[in-house]
Design goal:
The complex is a heterodimer of chains A (191) and B (211). Chain A has 191 residues and is of the alpha+beta class. Chain A has 3 helices and 12 strands. In chain B, strands 1, 2, 3, 4, 7, 10 and 11 form a 7-stranded antiparallel β-sheet that branches. In chain B, strands 6-5-8 form a 3-stranded antiparallel β-sheet, with no helix packed on it. A 3-stranded antiparallel β-sheet of chain B has the order 9-12-13, covered by helices on one side. The chains are: A alpha+beta (191), B alpha+beta (211).
């Protein structure tokens, strides 16, 4: 007989690698990470009217990213993501370590669609935009799809060139570091 | 990489309450506040490897779950993301005197403070949808027979109804010893108590200290 999972514990201090991993519960997808305080911060950027906002890398913060707002997190995923689920992001410096938690969801029935986009870092023009249907029930398919999208984006310089200013967007990387090819790993370290 | 695109406005002007842990914002979450698709409760607590200390309730690090194999005791630890799966009966000793069953997952996280100061304690759950409910249950402490149960259709009536219902249910359970006496083994369950210790009667305060 299958016994129900009564609870899950994700000990942030004992993650197997800095990037930890994703964990699924009934209502949420949770990611957690643990980095050295000297590592580059996982800074949250959000797209707003007229530009972007960079969240300050405070020693401790908790921020809600509402459904529908495009956002990028440095070194975690190399594109602007939005979906119809809320996210919340927690950062905590504790001694020589920095802990991160990113949680997606609350009500999975509302999460049916994800968007992957790139904006020109020089002028803000949208370079590419892809809608991935499926959402929470097909999250694993989304993980595969976003990887496919970033590899197609990386494969062709023309697809990364801004139609307004001609700037060529740097190469991208996906949501799971374990999928990274060498160049993607280099890019993850940079932006 | 996107420095050229940063808007020339303070973040506070664009996003009200952008950091929920800001001293001016966190007060709003001291009970529970629905925001978007989740309900957030955030409190300042003494958080350390020794446990979680509430200024009023003391140490309430012992968390219980009830499953097919009986009661499981876990302790609250700092920097552990703890998720109680929807439908799991759970009780935190000295914090609330009943078993709570939520149709939504509950996320818990305790972050230590800086230099010995107060840390942060998070309880987060999804906003209940139409058919989601909360239940308060008491089981016999000796043989686990179900003694008393009440259900709130939280999704239909709204989360704001929870606290009055919680208090009324505790008072109903406590009002008659018949509710607390186990029909199987005869053991009498201690009184229940609500989450907000300020509402305790003297007898409930004693019960809070006991279990």
């Amino acid at each position: 007989m299958h016994k129900p999972d009564l609870f899950y514990d994700i000990p942030l201090k004992h993650l197997a690698s800095p990037y930890g991993g994703w964990h699924e519960s009934v209502d949420y997808f949770c990611w957690s990470g643990r980095f050295d305080v000297t590592d580059k911060p996982l800074t949250v950027w959000e797209k707003v009217e007229g530009g972007v906002i960079k969240l300050p890398d405070k020693p401790v913060l908790m921020h809600i990213i509402p459904a529908g707002r495009p956002h990028h997190i440095d070194h975690l995923f190399g594109y602007w993501h939005s979906c119809d689920a809320d996210k919340f992001f927690i950062r905590k410096v504790d001694g020589e370590q920095v802990y991160y938690v990113l949680v997606v969801g609350g009500t999975k029935a509302l999460h049916r669609r994800d968007t992957v986009a790139w904006y020109c870092p020089q002028c803000g023009t949208e370079i590419a935009h892809h809608v991935v249907e499926g959402g929470a029930p097909k999250w694993n398919e989304f993980l595969e799809r976003q990887l496919d999208l970033i590899r197609r984006f990386n494969a062709d310089e023309a697809s990364r060139r801004c139609s307004s200013c001609g700037f060529v967007h740097p190469l991208s990387y996906g949501l799971r570091p374990e999928d990274d090819w060498a160049l993607e790993r280099e890019m993850r370290a940079i932006w | 990489m996107f420095r050229n695109l940063i808007v020339d406005q303070p973040i506070e002007r664009l996003f009200e309450d952008w950091d929920l842990l800001d001293d001016h914002v966190i007060k709003k979450f001291s009970t529970f506040l629905p925001m978007g698709q989740s309900i957030y409760g955030i409190r300042r607590r003494r958080v350390s490897s020794e446990g979680i200390i509430d200024p009023k309730k003391g140490n309430f690090s012992d968390r219980y779950k009830l499953g097919p194999d009986g009661v499981i005791l876990t302790d609250k630890q700092e920097l552990v993301l703890h998720i109680v799966t929807s439908g799991t009966p759970h009780h935190t000793a000295h914090n609330y005197g009943y078993w709570h069953i939520n149709d939504k997952d509950e996320l818990y996280l305790q972050l230590p403070g800086s230099e010995g100061g107060l840390g942060y304690s998070f309880t987060i759950m999804g906003t209940p949808k139409t058919t989601d409910t909360d239940r308060m249950v008491w089981y016999c402490q000796v043989c686990r027979t179900l003694l008393f149960e009440r259900l709130l259709e939280t999704g239909r009536v709204g989360f704001h109804s929870f606290w009055k219902w919680e208090e009324a249910t505790v008072r109903e359970f406590n009002s008659d010893e018949h509710n607390r006496r186990c029909p199987e083994c005869g053991d009498v369950h201690p009184l229940g108590y609500v989450w907000n210790s300020a509402k305790d009667t003297p007898e409930e305060r004693l019960a809070r200290m006991a279990w």
